[in-house]
Amino acid sequence: MNLGAFILKNALRNTRRALLCVLSVAACLFLFVSLLVCLRELTVPPEDIGASLRIAVRNKVSLTVQLPARQGPIIARVPGVAAVTPFSWFGGQFGTEEGTPFAQFAVDPAKFAAMFPDMRLPADQLANWIATRTGCIVGRDLAEKKNFKIGSRITLRGSVWPCDLELIVSGIYDYEIDSTSLFFDHKYLDEATGNTGTVGAWWVLAENAEAVPGIIDRINAAFANTSAEVRAETENAFRMSFVSMLGDIATLIGAICTVVVFTLGIVTASTMSMAVRERFPELAILKAMGFRTRELWAFILAESFLLAALGAVLGIGFAIAFYRSPPVVSAMSIYFPVFEISPRIMARAAIVAAGLGIVASLAPAIQVARLTVVDGLRTLD
Q1: Amino acid 249: pLDDT
Q2: Same domain (yes/no): 251, 373
Q3: Total number of domains constituting the chain
Q4: What is the pLDDT of residue 381?
Q5: Which domain-ending residue is among 172, 199, 226?
Q6: Which residue, of 17, 209, 328, 376, has the fewest CB within 10 Å?
Q7: pLDDT at 49 exceeding the cut of 80
Q8: Domain membership flag for residue 311
Q9: 370 pLDDT exceeds 70?
Q10: 270 belongs to a structural domain
Q11: Angstrom distance (rounded) from CA 54 to CA 234
């Protein structure tokens, strides 16, 4: 018997205990990976090439407070501004579904395409959307989920705005960041509501990244001390403002990850301690045969690493397969458009597993170091 077979035989001597240990490590690492991905999605939202040029302008008091439509031309005249579009959340109900099953925004179709250069929409579909007052475009994922086709009619029952909308699908777009939303012409919303003269927010496109700070300052100053003061900020800062509403989410998820790793350490250390105690006579015999303490610790460390590695492969592998499965991708896209387990997250999970393998072997190694041949052989009875 070689050393590899010896280590494998000892690690799997108690099959039930080894299996439970591996499954515990796998379950904890699956949760650990899931938390890390959620943390990254919430605190580091994905960006396309145009994200650095886009500026969100909302009411300074609250995002729910409307802005006057007359602000649009003023913002468009600010030096460095390439395009401006209203961006109003409709929040309508679809079919018999409760709440808002997907995001719905009223925008300026002619300016919208320039705002998002990475959004792929065929030119004929864009032209059709611009020419059709009741037209709309939907994301590819949303179209597949709801079986929307070009020409499909969509009825949205107003819950935030006092009107219902009858929309016709003019185009289906592909967008890596988010393909689960619906966009329609803001002029149609104005007509349906009797032209309230308000918008939810403004989306501004800068001519270049260097102009962004100056544009933000000029827009904030243009409406300072008015009845509708605004807060202009980069698109990323605007997204992060939603995360801040949840509190210190990074600290919360970090604390949960710490608890998960601590629990995992206790499980693996307990398993290895029990396994080593059962083999005191064998370890005493190995000492008597001339094996040194560091060599015995290497055997224990190898067993601990083996169990942790098996658990890591199962946990990380299951997380990848689970979050890439079509039903889960479809369900998660509502909350996380890009829920990807990156190589860095997999590496962090693997490092945690390796660290647990070392930590779990420390207590048994100390026991073996203190074990004498006589004391070990006494346990034969």
Answers
A1: 67
A2: yes
A3: 2
A4: 47
A5: 199
A6: 209
A7: no
A8: yes
A9: no
A10: yes
A11: 6
Domain that holds residue 188: 88-199
Q: What is the pLDDT of residue 237?
A: 76
CA dihedral 17→20→23→24, nearest 10 degrees, is -110
- ∠ Cα 373 375 377 (to 5°): 65
What pLDDT was estimated at residue 380? 47
Please say if the pLDDT value at position 90 is more than 60: yes
* Section 121-143 average pLDDT: 91
The CATH number assigned to the domain holding 97 equals 2.40.40
Predicted TM-score (pTM) of the model is 0.65
Whether residues 106 and 16 share a domain: the answer is no
Residues 190 and 120 both lie in one domain = yes
pLDDT at 145: 85
Main-chain dihedrals φ then ψ at residue 364, nearest 5 degrees? -60, -35
Distance set, CA 187 to CA 85, 88, 136, 160 (Å) = 11, 11, 12, 17
CA distance 314 to 312: 5
